[in-house]
Amino acid sequence: MAALTPRSYAAAVDVLVSGDRDLAAIVDRYGAPKLLSRPPGFPSLVYIIFEQQVSLASAKATFDKVSMLLPIFDENSYLKLSDIALQNAGVSRQKIRYTRLVAEAILAGGLPIRSLGRKDDATVRELLTAITGVGNWTADVYLMLALRRPDLWPVGDLALVKAAAIVKGVKGKPDKNWLESLGERYRPYRSVATGIFWKYYLNS
């Protein structure tokens, strides 16, 4: 379960752009994306849940407010926060429930979050998605950002869907089958290809 490093990420970008002129055009225009990463653990998983279906700026603002409420950002401290305190920080009722379930799963031993880095992608996804509120998108993004796995293709990611459709000249919203087929071109570096499409989305 080798994690990407800045060096291996840059090498993977070179491989991808050499085989796909559309990705090459993105890199030529906007520059090569850098490896995005977050520390593995409970705070990053909470942050990703906050990012579900909202803007990155909104999720960051909420995460920063919650962080200020905690002496240490761990599952024990988080569960001691009241619903009112979390709501005042911008966390929706639904996401309060989801993040509490994550914290409880860690404490109960159902989610061994500190050892996920030693497990394969499928096992990590299975453990994460067993928790209500943690779907495939959340699991994929955690694998990509926190565990820095090289071959994730989050087909439910709106930025990826929009960017891929525009770059590849698809009118309207492409279906899941089309996106999965496109992703097959980029194995074993689909996470890196996703980063290139994200680069396009954020700059176009």
Task: Tell me what the structure shows.
The chain is mainly alpha-helical and 204 residues long. It folds into 2 domains: 6-37 and 152-203, Endonuclease Iii, domain 2 (Orthogonal Bundle), CATH 1.10.1670; 42-145, Endonuclease III, domain 1 (Orthogonal Bundle). 62% of the residues lie in helices and 0% in strands. It is built from 12 helices and no strands. It has helices at 6-19, 21-30, 42-50, 56-69, 75-80, 83-88, 93-108, 121-129, 136-145, 158-167, 176-184, 190-203. Helix 3 packs antiparallel against helix 7, helix 8 (121-129) packs across helix 9 (136-145) and helix 10 packs across helix 12. The chain is globular and about 50 Å long. It starts with 5 loop residues before the first helix and ends with a helix. The mean pLDDT is 96.
How many individual β-strands? 0
Task: Count the DSSP helices.
Answer: 12
Distance between the termini: 33 Å
CATH C-level name of the largest domain: Mainly Alpha
Strand content: under 5%
Oligomer: single chain
- Estimate the mean pLDDT confidence: 96
CATH topology of the largest domain: Endonuclease III, domain 1
InterPro entries: Alkylbase_DNA_Glycosylase/TA, DNA_glycosylase, HhH-GPD_domain
Pfam families: HhH-GPD
Catalytic activity: Hydrolysis of alkylated DNA, releasing 3-methyladenine, 3-methylguanine, 7-methylguanine and 7-methyladenine
Enzyme class: hydrolase
